[in-house]
């Protein structure tokens, strides 16, 4: 019997190579075949040269991942075993990761798992040359990365973001996280209300919406006006997709539509040359959400990490 017969319709087992958008291809950044999603339902994100997608784990009680075509998710990674790992839903609706006696092992961070591991939000699973990320917003928000806890009286700050570019979205997420600001990344504007309701049910609050102008099949200005009316205390900042320059008239129009500001795309080469502009944008966000101060040391460290990662990816694809 074909193992794919009982798979959900939303899952495509035979994946093609990731395509690239025209704006990213020259610099070697792959556009996912399916946009990365961070939503209330537990999900698994694939960060791999072979697969760029997300899956809803609730679709099956047990997922097998490996090279074999009989697996629920086929990983064409030569360093993966034919049946490398399994992920099972537990009675309490948590998920358990199991290594299926793989040849090269399964790692959470730098630690090789022995037997099983209960997954927690943010766990990064390394198998072969690929990395998987477990997303479960039911878990408590991540702690702030500061060693100085003087800001804790300000509470938790959470930014809800949409972005059509994986690279730009990840850069924004890393920059905000460096300042102790939690980030939820949605794939479409249509999911925002559902995510806001879920976050509020956890006694948390969305401090700011970052809406990307480049999202397909939507008018972000309409959503900006809509959410300013529905959530008058929630501010909105618009993002210009991958365009690193925006005209002054565009910025004025964005403000007229109810946005606090319109930000140009983040530079992907020589980020430190644009340090002043990046700092100004983070300062605007901090002021908008009443966040206490800018952590310059954490920002510098994050920019170095991002630039190294981008340079390595470009170099690898050029070679």
What does the model show?
Residues 63-113 form the FHA domain. One of its GO terms (biological process) is phosphorelay signal transduction system. This is Phosphopeptide-binding protein. Pfam families: FHA. The chain has 319 residues and is an alpha/beta fold. The chain folds into 2 domains: 59-141, Tumour Suppressor Smad4; 146-318, Rossmann fold. It has helices spanning 22-25, 166-178, 192-201, 220-230, 248-256, 275-288, 296-318; strands at residues 43-47, 52-56, 62-66, 73-74, 85-89, 95-99, 106-108, 111-112, 116-118, 124-127, 130-135, 158-162, 182-186, 208-212, 235-239, 261-263. The strands form 3 sheets. A 6-stranded antiparallel sheet has the order 2-1-11-10-7-8, with no helix packed on it. A 5-stranded mixed sheet has the order 4-3-5-6-9, with no helix packed on it. The relative contact order is 0.11.
């Amino acid at each position: 019997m074909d193992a794919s017969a009982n798979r959900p319709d939303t899952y495509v087992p035979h994946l093609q190579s990731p395509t690239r958008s025209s704006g990213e291809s020259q610099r070697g950044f792959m556009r996912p075949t399916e946009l990365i999603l961070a939503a209330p339902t537990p999900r698994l994100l694939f960060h791999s040269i072979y697969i760029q997608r997300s899956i809803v784990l609730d679709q099956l009680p047990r997922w097998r991942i490996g090279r074999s075509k009989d697996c629920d998710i086929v990983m064409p990674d030569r360093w993966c075993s034919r049946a490398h790992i399994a992920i099972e839903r537990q009675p309490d609706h948590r998920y358990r990761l199991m290594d299926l006696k793989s040849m090269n092992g399964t790692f959470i961070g730098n630690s090789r798992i022995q037997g099983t591991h209960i997954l927690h939000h943010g766990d990064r699973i390394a198998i072969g040359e690929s990395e998987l990320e477990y997303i479960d917003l039911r878990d408590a928000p991540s702690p702030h990365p500061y060693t100085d806890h003087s800001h804790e009286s300000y509470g938790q700050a959470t930014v809800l973001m949409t972005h059509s570019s994986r690279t730009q979205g990840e850069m924004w997420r890393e920059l905000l996280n460096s300042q102790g600001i939690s980030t939820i990344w949605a794939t479409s504007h249509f999911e925002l209300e559902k995510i806001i309701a879920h976050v509020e049910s956890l006694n948390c609050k969305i401090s700011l919406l970052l809406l990307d102008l480049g999202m397909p099949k939507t008018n972000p200005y309409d959503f900006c006006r809509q959410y300013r009316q529905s959530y008058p205390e929630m501010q909105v900042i618009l993002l210009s997709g991958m365009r690193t320059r925006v005209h002054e008239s565009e910025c004025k129009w964005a403000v007229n539509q109810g946005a606090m500001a319109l930000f140009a795309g983040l530079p992907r080469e020589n980020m430190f040359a644009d340090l002043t502009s990046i700092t100004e944008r983070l300062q605007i966000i901090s002021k908008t959400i009443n966040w206490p101060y800018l952590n310059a040391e954490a920002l510098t460290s994050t920019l170095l990490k991002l630039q190294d990662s981008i340079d390595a990816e470009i170099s690898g694809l050029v070679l």
